[in-house]
Amino acid sequence: MTHRLPSLNPCGRRLITLLGGLAMAGFAFAVNANGGAPADTCSSYIGDATLNEIHDLGDDQWVEVRLLDEDIEPDTWEDWTVVTSTGPGAGGEDSYDLGDATANESWLKLDVDKQALDLNGETEVALLDSNGEYIDYLSINGADSNEPRNCDDFLYDTDAVSDSQYKSVMRLPDGVGDWMSPSSPGAGGGTTPGGSNDGGGGTQTVDASSREYEGDDAALYTRIVGNEFDLTVRYRADEPEPQEVTLDLVEDDGDGGCGQILSADWGSSSDFDDHEDGGYEATLSDLSHDEAVRRARVRIELVVETGVGNPGGWCDWFPWWPGCDGSGNDDLQVGTLEYCSSDAFTIRPKELSLNAISASEEALTRDDWSGYAPTTCSDEACQAAGADFTLGIEALPTGQGFDSDIQLRAEGHPQAPDWMVPGTISPTTLTFDGTADEASATDAAYDEVGLVSVDAHDEGDFAAIDRNQDHCVAGEADNTINADGLVGCRTALPEPEPLGRFIPDHFAVVEAEVTNRMELDCPVDDGFTYLGEALGASVTLEARSAAEAATENYREGYASLPALDWSMVAPEAEDGHLDGRLEIVRDTSGWGQGQASFSPEVTVVRADEADGPFTADVAFIATDADGVALRDATLDVDRDGDDVDDYRSAGGTNLRHGRLTMASAHGAEFAEVALPLRAEYWAGDDDGWVLSGDDCTPLEDGGGGSRFRYRSASAGDEFRAWEDEPDLGALTATVTPTTSLDGGEALLEMTPPEERGRVEACLDLSDLAYLHHEWRGSAELPAVCEGSPVGRATFGVSRGDDNVLFTREVFD
Q1: Number of C-alpha atoms within 13 angstroms, CB side, residue 697?
Q2: Sheet strands (E) in 504-611
């Protein structure tokens, strides 16, 4: 540990310094008159430097000097001298220039000859200034041959006893304490050339600990910005007695020492108690600091009693001098021991606070989430999933000095339903730089829908100096000092902060198709649907984030798109669309895993008069109650005719106004007769009715039976009632093909009845209303044949000229 130990001696050194050379010349003359060398008088530098450590082992001999006043320049101390004397009565003398010493800050190590020291016997060592006057003196093992006779103003101990093991002696505390062996309590069990004797790598003599620490060494625990706490200063020596202790809060210098002062005169006390293991201790209470500090230390200034006052009788000569007022203060000389705490500690912020602002500049936080239920974004703040919003973390009560990474993690919201799974928040880290109270990101994003809570904390890295020594509770952020005197290592939110509501950024089409004539089991798509006939549309949508990821929480009360808005866009239509004639039977699978399928039946109602044909797009738009919609770039149909695509096509179709026709035929009673059946559609005024190419209209009813109905009449008789089968002799009727039209055509074939008569046929179109037509003479048809054509087969009835082989009557 590094520390400096300046000395104050108001009745001694300061007085001599101020009076200057006049007083000193008087001393030097008196000593020199005796013919002695050194001068045997006191130096004005007494208290500014001391002999600190003496070593004599094998071939390693050296003397260490400690500069207590760091203002002494090398130009001064390089002219000083170290004088040693050894032998019986310590009579032999050796002199060494201190300018030859190796300097390490305020420690000066001077190598001497082997004969210069004898710590098995008697040795004296003197530190002399450039005038040969005593700065310090040491008698080892009782030597006194060269003890100064006219200088007894030394502030610190001048007698030492060495031991045979170490053959070294040192001052403890460093620079100002009593002489003792390296094996003494408070020493480290070894020499410390060019450095402090305090601890020697072990326990230092003066140190600070958190009041709750009960160990033998020293420990400082993590504490909270603005919170008051107590420290205990331990002084591990019985002499000199402590008078007052003052603390400065400082930064760690990076090398295990005290650096820049953060708070001078941070705390002080003159109330010392005897420590049960020896020495003294004082508790300093109500300490606090208003900024965060990653690695703080405590600089300790301990004022100790160093001896009896009135050195050299100065107070007798000059009683008016401050401190020599006869009040008893003139009997007290003090020195200041300055130490840096052996342990560093962290002062961290109390907690974090989170705020979140949506892209529309609305707060995504609330003071009270109790009883929450989603409404619409017109009534509550919303933020699109995956889109940028502003997320800020504030360190409380301040972020000054707090330079740490804050980890962000999405967690469950207290009002979220059980099925709602938290997504991912980004960024995952925000960084405080030590100069601002807040760390924020304007490009924060959450990739899911619904509600979420965000947990924010550092990993205890800011308090790593304590976390790594168990001087705080790892993984915790508690600010209350526990039974062991510890708080949590983490700086964190008190609780995860609830945010909401998040909505999809847009909908995307996963799959879309149109099925013509959806109610029929057509092996091949005819490519058209009759007006009045249902077609099927199928659209699968996915609710997505701005990053095109599915938002799986879009479901139940957090999904507000139950159906799509449909349009039948047809350029041939008067308004460009047929929406006024649309009939929709809606169907949806509901939302799950972020997807829903919409499969409505779409029918364009037939007009009273034939129209069309229409080339149409079955188009839709998807906009939920929160305004979430398809992206404009995915729209591909211009419904309004303004050259701007505003709908999305599920698929195209051709819409046709259709009808069935059936011709009549004549034949001999012994001949077969076939009635042609055709499906036609209106192709416009220029082309009229044309063959439809229908391959799908069924010729059987839903039960697999014949769709035809018949009424029969023998020659000369009236038609009998309509029946499912013809009733004329041996006549039977079959249709080819048997199940459905082929290319829009079929034949109703009748075998010879072998008697004269007539048979009329119609079709049950009760489930094929899209092929109805108003035929003349259809009033006598059965109800099931409404809109059906009628074909007549005539057998053996006079047909006029015998040269006419075949006659067919066409009903129009």
Answers
A1: 30
A2: 506-515, 529-530, 534-544, 565-569, 582-585, 595-598, 601-604
Over residues 790-808, the pLDDT tens digits come to: 999 999 865 555 555 555 5
- Amino acid occupying residue 637: V
| Separation CA 103–CA 81 (nearest Å) | 15
How many other β-carbons are positioned within 10 Å of the β-carbon of residue 625? 15
Q: Which 3 state secondary structure label does DSSP give 705?
A: coil
Contact predicate 298/347, CB 8 Å: no
Other CB atoms closer than 10 Å to residue 396's CB: what's the count? 15
Tokens of 745: 């055509």
* Beta carbons within 8 Å of 233's beta carbon, 6+ residues apart: 206, 207, 208, 245, 247, 269, 281, 282, 283, 284, 300, 302
Amino acid at 84: T
d(CA 510, CA 505): 16
- For residues 502 and 381, the answer to whether their CB atoms sit within 8 Å is no
- Sign of the torsion angle spanned by Cα atoms 371, 375, 381, 383: positive
C-alpha dist (Å) from residue 588 to 551, 564, 583, 617: 18, 9, 16, 21
Q: Quick one: average pLDDT of 386-403? A: 97
Query: Which amino acid, one-letter code, is at 43?
Result: S
* Both structure tokens of 25: 């010349």
Residue 568 pairs in a beta bridge with: 618
Give the range among 201-210, 474-483, 515-524, 763-772 with minimum mean pLDDT.
Answer: 201-210
Q: CB neighbours (10 Å) of residue 17?
A: 14
In one-letter notation, the amino acid at residue 746 is A
User: What is the three-class DSSP state of 19?
Assistant: helix
Give the Cα separation of 425 and 410 in Å (integer): 6
Give dist(CA 181, CA 197) in Å, integer.
11
Q: What are 806's two structure tokens?
A: 């075949």
Token reading at 252: 């760690």
Q: How far is CA 745 from CA 671, 677, 690, 736, in A?
A: 22, 6, 12, 9
User: Tokens 């669309």, residue?
Assistant: 577
Q: Measured between alpha carbons, how far is 708 from 714 in angstroms, rounded to an integer?
A: 20
| Full 3-state SS string of 358-387 | CCCCCECCCCCCCCCCCCCCCCCCCEECCC
∠ CA 108-114-117, rounded to 5°:
70
Instruction: Name the residue among 511, 564, 565 with its Cα closest to residue 538.
Output: 511
3-state helix vs strand vs coil in the chain, percent to 5: 10, 40, 55
Range with lowest mean pLDDT among 43-57, 233-247, 322-336, 725-739: 322-336
* Statement: residue 37 has pLDDT above 70: no
CA distance 688 to 672: 32
Residues 6+ away with beta carbon under 8 Å from 379: none
Residue 124 CA, chain-centre distance (Å), reads: 69
Contacts of 574 (CB under 8 A, 6+ apart): none
Rg (CA), the chain: 55
Cβ neighbours, 10 Å, residue 326? 9
Report which residue type is found at 428. Answer: T
40-55 pLDDT, tens digit each: 899 999 999 999 999 9
Closest among 241, 231, 294, 238 to 266, alpha carbons compared: 231
Alpha helix ranges (H) inside 343-421: none
**Which SS3 state, helix, strand or coil, does residue 329 take?**
helix
Other CB atoms within 10 A of residue 631 CB: 14
Identity of the residue numbered 307 = G
User: b vs e for 747-781, b when ≥16 Cβ sit within 10 Å of the residue's Cβ?
Assistant: ebebebbeebbbbbbbbbbbebebbbbebeebeeb
Q: What distance in Å separates the CA atoms of residue 175 and residue 66, rounded to the nearest whole number?
A: 6
